[in-house]
Amino acid sequence: MSNLLTGGELRAREHHRIEDAARAAGALHDAVRPDGVRVKVVTVGLEVARRLLADRRLSKDSDALQGEIRRQLAELGSAQTELAGLFGPSMLNSDNPKHARLRALAVKAFNAEAVQRLAPRVEEITAELIGRLPVGEEIDLVGALAVPMPLHIIGEVLGVPEEDRAEVRALIETMMSMDPEVSQPASDALGGYFHTLLTGTELDGSSLFGSLVAVDDDGDRLTHDELMAMAFLLVVAGHETTAGLITNVAHDALDNGLWEKAADDPGLVPVLVEETLRHNSPVRNATHRITTEAIEIGGVEVAENTLLLINLGSAGRCPVAHEDAARYRVDRATSGHVAFGHGPHFCLGAGLARLEAEIVLRELTARFPRTTYSGAEQPVVVWNDIMASSKTLPVVLRA
User: Fold this and answer.
1) 3-state class of 253 per DSSP?
2) Which terminus of the chain has fewer CB atoms gathered within 10 Å of its CB, N or C?
3) 264-275 burial by CB neighbour count: b if 16+ within 10 A, else e?
């Protein structure tokens, strides 16, 4: 059961039962990733989760994380020596002051003002993609809309050429599979692509990547390793998690009889997005942390150099923080989750993700208020230790 906290062939929301039962049983659970690496999954209430996500003793340092993962792989006799680019020295995998420095270089592209400037473009791309969708026949909403829309946006923000985006998406999907035989080659190929892009002479200087390769106002310049790590983080996190949010909120609206209500009342859409983030977050576990010293969690001492995954869904469905927490409800306060993290590593793209999900759901429900889910059973969720969103979402759009 514990290994189902880090993967497994699960259907939509089955992981809720597993995570909530784990939280009720205790705070710490030994689990093994598909590559054999041992981690402890933390299932605690909302307030404890917030404290741990901001605790400096739970390090995000790339060297420490990679060192422990490599040690375990070597102990297992694995021939794998390289790790996925997502473990590189990005702002995701760094502690302050390095984290603050790296974040400051990217924050201008994702602050509230920048997000609002993107709104017309998000609406334009959404309308264009929806306009291509057939009405009255089954389509996969994931492949047709939830994935390509945020991929277009993050591609434009960062400077990934349109003709490359489908290939980049395919490599990301393979890398995120957690199957070492295919995920590592995909990571290597993606790294090769980013190297070519970031060292090319045709990189758009107005894009975020274009600005990152240049010296900023204070004379700071990213190293090549930092640039590569930033590329992995922003491209993967910039669309994979948003695609999952769009998928989950569309499924939740259909499955809870709220689709037509959102069509009648567009003001309900932001509430649906927040309740999905609380109840059915597309990010199942926060990315890896490692203890810098022995620490007590839930009355149990955790040794130094222990890899931890903090479960976000079980914290969002905390029965102490929310009445009737296990149920999806839109009559509760639209706050009280850690789907975007907490503390220094709060998600830089939270505002953009919310904007994209709200625009997509508002446009879909307005144009197709009688849409129905057409799957025979609940869809299969993405299989890895971080994400929890449906691989496909078969629907029939009905006006």
Assistant:
1) helix
2) C
3) eeeebbbbbbbb
